[in-house]
Automatic annotation (TrEMBL):
Gene3D superfamilies: Formyl transferase, N-terminal domain (3.40.50.170). The keyword S-adenosyl-L-methionine does not apply. Residues 104-208 form the Formyl transferase N-terminal domain. It holds the Pfam family Formyl_trans_N. Coiled coil: none annotated. Pathway: Purine metabolism; IMP biosynthesis via de novo pathway; N(2)-formyl-N(1)-(5-phospho-D-ribosyl)glycinamide from N(1)-(5-phospho-D-ribosyl)glycinamide (10-formyl THF route): step 1/1. It comes from Henriciella pelagia. GO terms for molecular function: transferase activity. Its EC number is 2.1.2.2. This is phosphoribosylglycinamide formyltransferase 1. PANTHER family: PHOSPHORIBOSYLGLYCINAMIDE FORMYLTRANSFERASE. Keywords: Purine biosynthesis, Transferase.
C-alpha cells in the first residue's frame, strides 16, 4: 500500500514510463508508483474492431509484420540514446510499487487515497474513469508521446512524420479529463529525429527530449501554479498504422 506522498505515479510500465518516473525521482526524491496490469491483447483488439471495423483492424494487425522487420539495428541506436542521455528505462531498486489490476479498480483508488498526493503523474495507462479521477483532491497530469490536439491517441510521433509534419514530432504534458488526450495542455516539447530512427526508436527519442517538461509540470502542480492552455491545432485521434499506410509512408517519405 502506498504511503503518504506529495507525488504518486500511475503507469502500466514500459521503458518511456520509467524514464519519466526516474527523472521525477531525481528532482523530487522517492515517491510511490502504482502499476496496473496490461490489458489483454485479445480484449484490446476486440474493442478496436467495435470502434474501427474489422477490415481496418485486420490491416493494422498485418502492419505489425513489416514494422517488426524494421527493428534490425535499432537496439544499437537505443543503447546509444540510453548512454548519451543517461536514460533509466527500468524501475530503480527499492521503488515503492503497488500492483493493481487496473487504474480503475478499487485497489488503485485505495492506494491513491492512502498516499494523499498533491499531484498524480500518469504515463502509459488505460483511460482513467471519473471515479478514479475524483478519488483524491489532486490534478492528474499525463505525459503523452505526441503533440496534442493534432496527434492524440497512439503513436503520435510516428504519424506526425508520416504526415510530413516533423515540426509536430514531440510530446505533450496535459491535465487529464474524460476524453482521449483532450485535457488542457501544460507544456509541449519539440524533438528532432536522427538518422536511423524508426518506429522502434521514436518513443525513446521523445522521452529523451521531454523529461524537462514533465518536471516543470509537476513543479507547477506542487507550487499551485498550473497554467493550462489550449493549442490552436486541428484535433484528431490516431490509432495503429495500417499496412497500406505504413508501407506508403516508408516508400514515399522514408518514415518506417
Amino acid at each position: 500500500m502506498a504511503e503518504h506522498s506529495d507525488i504518486i505515479a500511475l503507469t502500466s510500465g514500459g521503458p518511456h514510463s520509467w524514464i519519466m518516473i526516474n527523472a521525477l525521482r531525481d528532482r523530487f526524491g522517492d515517491f510511490p508508483v502504482i502499476v496496473e496490469q496490461g490489458e489483454p491483447e485479445a480484449l484490446f483488439w476486440k474493442r478496436r474492431r467495435r470502434m474501427l471495423g474489422p477490415l481496418r483492424v485486420a490491416s493494422m494487425q498485418a502492419a505489425r509484420l513489416p514494422i517488426k522487420l524494421t527493428r534490425r539495428g535499432t537496439d544499437r541506436i537505443i543503447s546509444e540514446m540510453i548512454e548519451r542521455h543517461k536514460l533509466e528505462p527500468e524501475p530503480r531498486p527499492g521503488t515503492n510499487i503497488t500492483h493493481v489490476p487496473s487504474v480503475n479498480s478499487d485497489a488503485c483508488r485505495r492506494a491513491l487515497k492512502a498516499a494523499g498526493p498533491r499531484a498524480v503523474f500518469v504515463v502509459s495507462t488505460r483511460m482513467i474513469s471519473a471515479q478514479t479521477l475524483t478519488s483524491v483532491d489532486a490534478p492528474f497530469i499525463n505525459y503523452h508521446s505526441g503533440i496534442n490536439p493534432a496527434y492524440r491517441g497512439m503513436f503520435g510521433g510516428y504519424f506526425a512524420l508520416a504526415n510530413g509534419e516533423p515540426e509536430h514530432f514531440g510530446a505533450t504534458v496535459h491535465l487529464i479529463d474524460s476524453g482521449v488526450d483532450t485535457g488542457d495542455i501544460l507544456y509541449q516539447s519539440k524533438v528532432q529525429v536522427e538518422p536511423g530512427d524508426n518506429f522502434h526508436t521514436y518513443l525513446w527519442r521523445m522521452a529523451a527530449g521531454s523529461r524537462g517538461i514533465v518536471i516543470r509540470a509537476m513543479e507547477d502542480a506542487l507550487s499551485g501554479q498550473l497554467s493550462p492552455s489550449m493549442v490552436d491545432l486541428p484535433s484528431k485521434q490516431w490509432f495503429a498504422p495500417t499496412l497500406g499506410g505504413y508501407v506508403w509512408a516508408g516508400l514515399r517519405r522514408g518514415v518506417w
